[in-house]
């Protein structure tokens, strides 16, 4: 399993979120992307939306009152369901 870390603490720009999307989109089934973030909208809305758009599992935990650690992974159950042929 490959674990990638991305720290976007500080002011979050659209560039940061594009980087999150690009790295999340490149995840392999055994990879995970761990994002450190201290911006409430990014941690609670924007990054979970990116995960939902890419069919990723998102796990979020607060490290402190102002810092979140967000883990994105491929949802293997969706891939298994979607890999079968349609009758």
Description:
It is a single chain. With 87 residues, the chain is α+β, with helices and mostly antiparallel strands. The protein contains three helices and four strands; from the N terminus they run βαβαββα. Strands 1-2-4-3 form a four-stranded mixed beta sheet, covered by helices on one side. The relative contact order is 0.21. Mean pLDDT is 88; it is low at 80-87.
What's the SSE blueprint?
Elements lengths: L2 E5 L6 H12 L6 E6 L2 H14 L2 E9 L2 E8 L1 H7 L5
Parallel strand pairs: 1-2
Antiparallel strand pairs: 2-4, 3-4
Features of this protein?
single chain, Translation Initiation Factor IF3, alpha+beta, 3 helices, 87 residues, globular, disordered C terminus, 4-stranded mixed beta sheet
CATH fold assignment = Translation Initiation Factor IF3
Q: What is the CATH C-level name? A: Alpha Beta
In whole angstroms, the N-to-C terminal distance is 34 Å
Radius of gyration: 14 Å
- Please tell me the overall pLDDT: 88
């Amino acid at each position: 399993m490959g674990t990638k870390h991305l720290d976007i603490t500080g002011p979050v720009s659209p560039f940061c979120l594009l980087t999150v999307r690009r790295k999340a989109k490149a995840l392999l089934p055994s990879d995970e992307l761990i994002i450190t973030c201290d911006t409430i909208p990014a941690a609670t809305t924007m990054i979970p939306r990116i995960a939902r758009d890419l069919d990723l599992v998102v796990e979020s935990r607060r490290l402190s009152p102002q810092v979140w650690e967000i883990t994105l992974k491929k949802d293997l159950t969706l891939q298994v369901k979607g890999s079968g042929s349609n009758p």
